[in-house]
Amino acid sequence: MEPTVVLTIGGSDSSGGSGLQADLRTLAALRMHGASVVTAVVARNTREIADVYPQPTTVVTAQLASVLEDLPVAAVKTGILPTPETAVAIAARMRTGALPNLVVDPVLTVAAAGARRGLIAAYERILPHVTVLTPNREEASALLGWDVFTPADMAAAAAQLAARGPRCVVITGGDFAAGTEAIDVVWAEGTARMLHSPRISGRNTDGSGATFATAIAARLAAGDDAPAAVSWAKGFVGRAIGDAADWRIGGGTGPIDQFGWSALTLR
């Protein structure tokens, strides 16, 4: 039996909480083989991002070509695309159909100020090829040019982004400061619906967005349709946040627990 291969394209996080490290942990927990393309090296810990070192576009495209010419990639997830040049180069591979079941987490917070506008423009080349787009409210606001705040805003934003090409759009609302529920808005097949789950208290949420997008890609690779993959991934992330509630890793926001390690007793 051959394992299912899922490719993640994004940044390496030195703290191990987010980025490629979170993606690969998620895929391992789901019994899938994770291949990776490093787009940036991020110097960070649980308290702060110290610096971001974009990899040359030629280095990124060489990694991507090597994986695609040999591995049977069933789904792809993208995270940090640090420069417009990198985003445009990856979009060119998307146009060939080489990146199936594509889940895009449009991480814009680490882009240099001068590159952010060009990067947002580059996403216009990516969106027509996307199966599931997973921005949070801040990222949706940046992509659209207006502030997304309320659930009604999220539904309108999801519809506008879907009109640019993605088959399914999920605006995540876990960053709401108040309320007892975590609300995401999903747009698929011309309809918006809200996904509700209890808000889980705890300081450890690092990697939740990366894990959510990667879990969606994994379920697409397993044969789920997009709405089913999104619903499953939301439950998976909720459990991972809850399992990490009592962890103490670093002095800031710690990682989530994709494996349920907190329930294990090591002897």
UniProtKB/TrEMBL annotation:
The keyword Transferase applies. It comes from the Bacteria. It catalyses: 4-amino-5-hydroxymethyl-2-methylpyrimidine + ATP = 4-amino-2-methyl-5-(phosphooxymethyl)pyrimidine + ADP + H(+); 4-amino-2-methyl-5-(phosphooxymethyl)pyrimidine + ATP = 4-amino-2-methyl-5-(diphosphooxymethyl)pyrimidine + ADP. Pathway: Cofactor biosynthesis; thiamine diphosphate biosynthesis; 4-amino-2-methyl-5-diphosphomethylpyrimidine from 5-amino-1-(5-phospho-D-ribosyl)imidazole: step 3/3. SUPFAM superfamilies: Ribokinase-like. Residues 13-257 form the Pyridoxamine kinase/Phosphomethylpyrimidine kinase domain. The keyword Transferase applies. InterPro entries: HMP/HMP-P_kinase_dom (IPR004399), PM/HMP-P_kinase-1 (IPR013749), Ribokinase-like (IPR029056). Keywords: Kinase, Thiamine biosynthesis, Transferase. GO terms for molecular function: kinase activity. It holds the Pfam family Phos_pyr_kin. Catalyzes the phosphorylation of hydroxymethylpyrimidine phosphate (HMP-P) to HMP-PP, and of HMP to HMP-P. This is Bifunctional hydroxymethylpyrimidine kinase/phosphomethylpyrimidine kinase. It comes from Dactylosporangium salmoneum. The gene is thiD_2.
